[in-house]
Amino acid sequence: MRHRRISELMTREVVSVRGDAPFKEIVRTLSQHRVTAVPVVDGEGRVVGVVSEGDLLRKTADQAAAPSGLPAVPDLEAWERAKAEGTRAEELMSAPAVCARTEWTVAETARLMEVQGVKRLVVVDGDDRLVGIVSRRDLLAIFLRKDDDIRREIVEVVLGDTLRLEPTALAVDVHDGRVELSGRLPFRGMIPAIERMCATVDGVVSVSCTRLTYDVDDTERGGGQS
Question: In the CATH scheme, what is the code of domain 145-216?
Answer without folding.
Answer: 3.30.1340
